Amino acid sequence: MHLSDLAIKRPVFMSMILLAFVLFGFIAFRTLGVDLYPKVDFPVVTIVSTLPSADPHTMEATVTEPTEEAVSTLDSIENLRSISAEGVSQVIIEFNLKKNIDIAFQEVQAKLASIRSNLPHDLLGPIIDKYNIDAVPILSLIASSDLPVDELTHLIETEVKEPLKRIPHIGQIKLVGERKHKIWLRVDPKQMEGYGLTIQDVEQGIKTHHIDLPAGRMTKNSAEFLVKTKGELFSVESFNDVIIAQRNGVPIPFRAIGKAEAGMEEERSSATFNGTSAIALMIGKQSGANTVEVAKQLKKIIKQLQQDLKSKKIRLEITQDNSVFIEKSVEEVRFHLLFGGGLAILIVLLFLRNLRSTFVCALALPTAVIGTFAFMSYFDFTQNVMTLLALSLAIGLLIDDAIVVQENIIRHLEKGYSPLEASSVATRQIALAVLATTLSVVAVFIPVAFMKGIVGRFFYQFGVTVSIAVLISMLVSFTLNPLFSSRLLTPSKRGALYQFLERLFQTIERGYASLLKVSLKYKKSVLSLALLSFLFSIYLFGHLRFEFAPVVDQSEFSVSLKTPLESSLTQTKGVVKDVEGRIRNYPWVDYLFSTIGADRLGSVNKASIYVKMLPKEKRKTSQREAMARIRNDLSSFSLAHCTVSTAERGAGGGQGKATDLQFEICGPSIEQLSLISERVMKKMKEAKGYVDIEISLEAEKPQINVMINRAAAADAGISPFLIASTLKTAIGGSDITSLKKDGVRDDVTLRFSQEFRNDPSHIAEILLKNPAGKLIPLQDLVTLCEEKGPTQINRSNKMRQVTVSANLIHSQKVLGEALKEITSFFAQEKLPDGYRFKFSGAAIMFQDSFNNLFFALGLAVILVYMVLAAQFESLIHPFIIMLTLPLSIVGAIGSLVIFHMTMSIFTMIGIIMLMGLVTKNGILLVDFINTLYHKEKKERDEAIIQAGKFRLRPILMTTLAVVCGMLPIALGKGAGSESRSPMAVAVIGGLITSTLLTLVVIPVVYALVEDLRKKKFFMTFFFKKIRESVVFLKKENA
Question: How far apart are CA 373 and CA 383, in angstroms?
Fold first, then answer.
């Protein structure tokens, strides 16, 4: 029994099945998460190790390299990066997208545990976490108050940061502009020398007088007591009275050699909101977490905290929230989905001119869309731009099957069939053609399974969503259409409007029939015209500009500043204030959020200004124009190197920057890498279209190397560790203990006074004490060497690496052109052995994407052919139908050129989808021609013309329904429309040209093929080739 007959005979049974789809879809819709794109975060594990005062070379050799060697043997690593800077080693491991982050975390822990004994014994860490240290925050929060900075810092740490950290899937929370309360013990080295003391003596003296130690357990009468020694100091002033040593029976208090003072940490970062100083909290998420869900939880807690902190006069304000743009983009696509569906239904009403028939067709839309949500939930998809865009683009497609079936039912009703008979016969007659059209759409997305990486994830969710939706719509057309048509459709009165439109349609049909007659008479001319159109599209393709994704107007961008390396925080603050003043003069600026020292290494010469623009509807200047103006304004700014970039959204934030072009140069020597990168950058500056050119290699910083004379040190009985630790405490300071006050512990830091630390020549005067108690000046044991060294060493996959980045002036150069040019630069450069370059960031995604996409496109064409061959039980007829594919390319490429749009991954998605869409018209036409010509034995041209007339309306109806369904996306101006619009434009252009040319070219080619079949051309050609092969084999054997 055919599915349609089952629906007609058992309407309640079938209604309940379809109602179940809708019910589960509604339930799933309520639970589906919301995100900008499918989950494409690489599982990332970050390892941070700290060795105070170690230079970058030491960190690389003693910490970074052993760590890399240990973890590099793990499976599924995509990329291994590291940074070695002063006192810090960061190793970032990016795993394959399929890797479970929890398993990866455990594997990294095990590897590091096995090498811990080989790392420096005073190393702090390694600290392992499941977030990408390079990831930009999903939300930024500013806290301001009239309280002293150290008090505000304490309150933010305890009453804001701690509650936020408890939210599931929260990653790193970084404070910027904070300064903790600290106790400073500053000693005068001259006074110490007078008493014969060293800094180590002072440290030991403080520690022995400030103790809180358990002594053990004792029992009395079967009761157990804990014994504890309480010898802590309870005030800052009490440190001044601590007896450090005795000389000739006279005690030497700390106040005799130094001074204890309450204060704050040194200021190493800064945050301002519209020029007002505050403390910023940069909140990230863990890899793979849903941005919108995490942001919702954050804002819920923040709202409560805002109320709680009012009494303490602390103001909390969200300055940047990535989830807002995501929700706006998703809401925009939802609107397109509803509006496009409404337009498609109006087209159906226009053609059918019957409310009941239109109602039956319209039921396919909500059933297919809502039913798809159930499967999206099962596959763990989210409501994101790609899945909702799939439904929006397919909205006309979802009603297509219902239109074709319904039009056939109406045609049988007009022949005199009863509603029940018409519903059954018409559905069964068209069923195979509808099945073939649906499977051809599904077939184009099967190659998605063979695609890897981020674009594979994008395509996977888009393709699966479309495929499920069209399969459900086919099921609806085979069940709901005949079910309701058999009961609702009745002969109705035809008014003046109906008659007018009928005459119009009949006129169009007669005109089309006349066109077919002429076309069949001049077959060669028609084919020549089609061929010229296709060749012209190939010509246009050569003039298309390629980029990874169009620039989206997010109403925000980032200005990065880099002052000279020796700049202090105060100097950088002045530069930021100057730049902020320039930016604030523009009328489209909403607010500015600036940070200094917020990068992963806390560099006080680096700043970032987040520029939030007014909403798109409230300004005339586009984001791209605004960025160009700011870039031009700052081009002559001499106090800092400034770059203007879009705010990065890949990891979910606005404080990062996303550059258009990035490439890495790897090799053993930093000096050689620097020379190569400088030469390439010079060529980029000479070429047109590159701006904001930057290199990751920082200028070398002056440093004083203390070279230990091991023989002299051994003779004196002084260990290298004592020398290093003494220098660390004297110059950098050491946290030797802590002081508890009001339930809070503050670090107590010991170091030399500022006067000593301001003059490097005093280093040689530092005294050390050997085991015999003799004081030895450092100058007897070491040699001081002044030289320049790198501030950080970057590595990629265990090789030293330099990254060059740049933005592009899109009116002069797009990414595809830039990649070709950079490749040619390196071809001219001829890298030495052991050196290589590779693209990274958007550039590598661009290369991988288009390689995968063109492969998927070719495979999709093959699969569509296989589906059609199976449907028509013919190897020839599928070729006829597939002529619609090159005919669609004419309109797709032409529309992109006309509207000055680029070829991007979004456009390619549309074109692959187009491959499935355009075959529908050819299938409907060829299937009916076969029925009339082969089964009903009509004369060939008569069968072609009659089939064309009968199929003209459903072809025009389905095409216009799909076009109107996509029209809101093509014309959209909302959030993120810049990436979606080219996709819809390409599909609409391809559908229009394909439909118009298909209606003429397919019948002509069909006639030519049938002429050749009558002449037994194909069989003759086939047997001729077989004979030639046999003769060839005989000669070879002889």
Answer: 9
Which of these ranges, 289-298, 489-498, 996-1005, has the smallest mean pLDDT?
489-498
Residue 891: CA count within 13 A, CB half-sphere: 26
pTM over 0.85: no
Rounded CA-CA distance 207/615 in Å is: 59
User: Parallel, antiparallel, or unpaired for β 744-752 and 181-187?
Assistant: parallel
**Strand-pair partners of 747:** 182, 738
Tokens representing residue 241 in the block: 């009275």
Could you tell me if 200 and 767 are in contact, meaning their C-beta atoms sit under 8 angstroms apart?
A: no
Instruction: Report whether 32 contacts 334 (CB < 8 A).
Output: no
Q: Kindly report the CATH number that applies to the domain delimited by 3-35+326-489+497-548+847-1021.
A: 1.20.1640.10
Q: 224 pairs with which residues across the strands?
A: 219
Residue pair 56/84 in contact (Cβ under 8 Å)? The answer is: yes
Q: What is the pLDDT of residues 233-252, one digit of tens each?
A: 888 999 999 999 988 888 99
Q: How far is CA 848 from its chain centroid?
A: 15
Reduced 3-state DSSP string for 170-228: EEEEEEECCCCEEEEEEECHHHHHHCCCCHHHHHHHHHHHCEEEEEEEEEECCEEEEEE
Give the residue from 427, 385, 381 showing the smallest Cα distance to 402: 427
Do 42-131 and 555-648 share a fold? Answer: yes
What residues contact 299, with CB distance under 8 A and at least 6 apart?
139, 318, 321
Tell me the C-alpha distance between 995 and 396, whole Å.
Answer: 15
Task: Tell me if residue 107 falls in helix, strand or coil.
Answer: helix
Residue with tokens 């080989």: 118
Q: Name the DSSP class of 544.
A: -
d(Cα 630, Cα 557) in Å, to the nearest integer? 10
What is the pLDDT, as a whole number, of residue 1025? 55
The token duo for 592 is 């500015």
C-alpha distances in angstroms, 702 versus 329, 695, 748, 787, 847?
49, 20, 29, 6, 40
- Comparing C-alpha atoms, which of 632, 583, 639 is closest to residue 611? 583
Q: How confident is the model at residue 652 (pLDDT cuts 50, 70, 90)?
A: very low
Q: CB within 8 A of 888, min separation 6: which ones?
A: 914, 915, 917, 918, 990, 991, 993, 994
Pick the CATH number of 42-131 from 3.30.70.1430, 3.30.300.30, 3.40.50.300, 3.10.20.600: 3.30.70.1430
Taking residue 123's Cβ as centre, other Cβ atoms within 10 Å add up to 17
What's at 273, amino acid-wise? F
Cα 426 from Cα 100, distance rounded (Å): 51
- Cis check: omega of the bond before 120, within 30 degrees of 0: no
How many other C-beta atoms can be found within 10 angstroms of the C-beta atom of residue 752? 21
Greatest Cα-to-Cα distance within the chain, rounded to the nearest angstrom: 129
Token pair in block for residue 764: 């040689």
Q: Hey, what amino acid is at 34?
A: V
- The ranges assigned to domains in the chain are 3-35+326-489+497-548+847-1021, 42-131, 555-648
DSSP SS3 for 778: helix
Taking the alpha carbons at both ends of the chain, their separation in whole angstroms is: 60
Residues 28, 376 contacting (CB under 8 angstroms): yes
Residues 6+ apart with CB under 8 A from 694: 641, 643, 659, 804, 805, 806
Burial class (CB in 10 A: 0-12, 13-18, 19+), 554: buried
What are 717-770's pLDDT values in tens digits?
998 888 888 888 888 888 888 888 777 888 899 999 888 887 888 888 899 998
Is pLDDT at 649 greater than 70 in this prediction?
no
Question: Which of these, 314, 198, 261, 335, lies nearest to 722 by C-alpha position?
Answer: 198
Residue of 723 and 354 predicted with greater confidence: 723
For 709, residues 6+ apart whose C-beta sits below 8 A from its C-beta are: 781, 782, 783
Q: Name the CATH architecture for the domain at 555-648.
A: 2-Layer Sandwich (3.30)
